[in-house]
Amino acid sequence: MYEEIANEKLLDLSGKTAIVTGGAMGIGLSIVKRLAWAGANVLIADMDEEAAKKGEAELSGQGLKVGSIKTDVSSATDVDNMVETAVKKFGGLDIIVNNAGIYPQISLERMTASDFDKVIAVNLKGVFLCTEAASKKMVDQGRGGKIINVTSVDAIHPSMVGLAHYDASKHGVWGFTKNAALELAEHQIWVNAIAPGGIATPGTNKPAPAGVDMEKIMAAFMQKIPMHRMGNPDEIGKAALFLASDLSSYMTGAQIVVDGGVLLS
Fold first, then answer.
1. What is the pLDDT of residues 3-29, one digit of tens each?
2. pTM over 0.90
3. For tag attachment on the chain, is the N or C end more exposed, with fewer CB atoms within 10 Å?
4. Among all residues, which ones are annotated catalytic?
């Protein structure tokens, strides 16, 4: 039966517990902040333990309920420990944002099988492991949940030379999102995705690999964005808050594109 809920209540995550993988910086940290500001308990899971602890300290200092844990999402042991830590620390699990990802630029000519396997292990297998562990806990709790996978516009349209393994992983995450949404719907667990376009993060400022003219590539990319700017991490954080909240109560198996209009070109 339809129930009218006040606007402020729709975005209230008080009493909910969330995990954000790759949550120590950039898009991940912005998602952590949005969920914590909405009242959720948030566990920052990241390979960079020092950065994760720094994020925890910053937000805990604001009176927010935030924890951190070093996690390799490609390791089933690490992922199981991550979920159990969230449950022990905060009493349950309601939301997981699968944001962790890597994107080393390597041309197909130079790419090795191990290069390909590493990206797939983190970007795709990691989403599977985290979804599997989190959904089992959510099913056991019997109160539903939200699973949010960060894909990319590269899950819809190929990106650039040097990211064949990345594009393959993100197409895979989008397919996995839709299938998991079908399977988990009967448990009131909604599975959706966010597809960011060009977002200005610490990762986008890394030195370019040999033979890659990033200045030229970025100039060409900017020409394709109707908004004529890169996005900022908080613009993905706000989309994650939407999907984590009751504002998205009738959505599962969907992908929100947040790209400044780049796919229009």
1. 788 998 999 999 999 999 999 999 999
2. yes
3. N
4. 166
